[in-house]
Amino acid sequence: MQRRSNQMARSGLPGARHLLCALTLLAFAVSGCRSDRSGVGVTALVGGTVVDVVSGRLVPNAVVLIRDGNIVSVGSSVELPVPNGAVTVDLAGRWIVPGFIDAHAHLQPWGLDASLRSGVTAVRDLHDGLALADTLRARVQQGPAPRLFLAGAMVDAPPTTYPDALPLADPDSADVVVDRLAATGVQWVKGYTHLTPTLLQALVAAARNDRLPVAMHLGLTNAVEAAMLGVSSIEHLSGIPEAADDSLTLRAAHVRGFFAGWTAFEFAWATMPPAALGGIARDLAATGVILVPTLGLHETFSRLDDSTVYRSPDLALVPDSARVNWNVAGMIRRAGWEAEDFRRFRDARVVQNAFVRTFVAAGGRVATGTDASNQLLVPGAGVHLEMELLVEAGLTPLEALRAATLHGAMLLRADHLGRIRPGAAADLVVLGGNPLTEIRNTRLIVRVMSRGEWVK
Question: What are phi and psi of 323, to 5 degrees?
Fold first, then answer.
C-alpha cells in the first residue's frame, strides 16, 4: 500500500497528498492507535537518511515511524506525514541502518553489552556449553541485550575437541543428540571438525526433523560435501582447502588435534590452484549455503607476532578478567606457532580474500561473524572489523553492509531483522557518516535502538 500511495503522491493528481495522509493515519488506526487517529505511542525518526540495504538506495530526509517495537512505515518526509502526538527524534545529518548481526560468536555475559554498544542487535552464539547458554538467556531477560540465536553445545565425534561438546559416535545416535539439544530450546545445531560425511549426514537429517538448521566448522568433511548434505552455513571458510586437496595430509592433521588441523588448513590456502579455488567458489554458491568467513579471526591470528594487534582500540571494550583468561601467549605455545607460521598465515589471507570475492561474484552470500570472545576477538567491534576486511577483500561497502544485516537475517531465518521496512523490528543504528561511501563510517555510532527502545 505504501508504494502505491507514494506513486500517487508523486503523480501530482488532485487530492493525492490528502489521500496519502488519510491512508497513513488509517494504518495507525487499524494497527491499534487511538480511535482519534493520533500518534500517541509512536516514535518518529525524522530528517535522517535511511539506507535501504536491499536496493542500495538512500532515502534522504526520511521519516521512520515506530510503534510497539516495530517499524510501522518508512518514507520521504515529502510523502509520509508525522502523526499528531508522535514523539519526534531529529536525526538530520545522520544515516539510519538496520541493527548489525554477529552470525558467529561465543559470548560471555559481558559481551552482550559490548555488542549493543557497537550496534549489534542480534547474535548467533555457536557454542558456549548448555550451562552458559542458560546464563545468557537469563541475562537477556534482565535488560537491554541483543537478540540471541543459540546453538548451546556443539556436536563433535569422539574424542570431542572440547569437553562440553556433545559426542556423536555413530549415525544412529544423531536423533538422540539433536533431541537433547532441541529440548533446551536452541535455535541452531553446531557441528565440529571430527564429524565425517556419514556422521554429518545423520546430524543434518536429525536436525531437519526438529526444524533446526546446521552450522559447521569443518575438518574431516570438505565444504562441498557439507553444502550438498544440506548444512545452512559454513564457518571460518573451513573445509574449502580440503575440497581441493587429494592427499590425506589435511585429514591426518585434523585427526591429530585442533591446532594441528587449523595450522595445516591455513597453510593449504597458499597452495590452492586458482582453477580449483574458482570451481569450489562457484560450486558452493550454487548450493545456496551461506559462508561466515570470520576474516577477522584469520587476520588476527596471522598477526599474533605483530605488537600492534595487542594495542587495538577495540580491546578497550574487553574487561581485564577476559584478557587474562585469553592467555594468548599460552595459546601460541600450545599451537607451537613460530614466526614462519605467521608469515604463512599471512600468505593464506591473500587467497582467502580472493576466494570470498569469487564466491560473492558467483552469487554466493556471506554473513559477518566475529568468533568473539575468543582470543583478541571483540564482541560488537569485531563486526565492524569484519565489514572492513570484506571491503579489503574486494566487496563493495553495500555488499559488506548486507553481510552484517540482510544476509545475517537470511541466515537466522528472521525476515523481521536486517532491513528497514514496515513490519520489521525496530532494531536500528544511527551513524554519523554514510557507510556506502566509506565502510569505516559504521563505527561512527550516534545512537542504537533495540526493540524500539534507545539503548545508546
Answer: -65, -40
Q: What pLDDT was estimated at residue 37? A: 54
What are residue 377's phi and psi, to 5 degrees? Answer: -110, 120
CATH code, 334: 3.20.20.140
pTM of the entire structure?
A: 0.91
Strand boundaries in 182-289, DSSP class E: 189-191, 214-216, 233-235
Residue type, 258: F
pLDDT tens by residue, 164-186: 999 999 999 999 999 999 999 99
Q: Which of 391, 403, 404, 402 is nearest to 438 (CA)?
A: 391
User: What grid cell was written down for 232?
Assistant: 545452512
Chain-wide mean pLDDT for the chain? 92
Does 335 map to a domain?
A: yes
CATH code for the domain of 28: 2.30.40
Q: Could you tell me which of 138, 93, 86 has the C-alpha nearest to residue 112?
A: 138
Nearest by Cα to 155 from 192, 121, 111? 192
- Mark which of 72, 93, 114 sits at the end of a domain: 93
- Residue 304 · residue 336 · CB < 8 Å: no
Q: Please, how many CA atoms are within 13 Å of residue 71, restricted to the half-sphere of its CB?
A: 27
Burial readout 275-290 (b: 16 or more C-beta within 10 A, e: otherwise):
eebbebbebbbebebb
Query: What is the CB neighbour count within 10 angstroms for residue 414?
Result: 18
Please tell me the total count of domains within the chain.
2
Give the integer Cα–Cα distance in Å for 81 and 174: 55
Sign of CA dihedral 322, 323, 324, 330: positive
Grid-cell match 497513513, residue found:
24
Cis ω on the peptide bond leading into residue 159 (within 30° of 0)?
yes
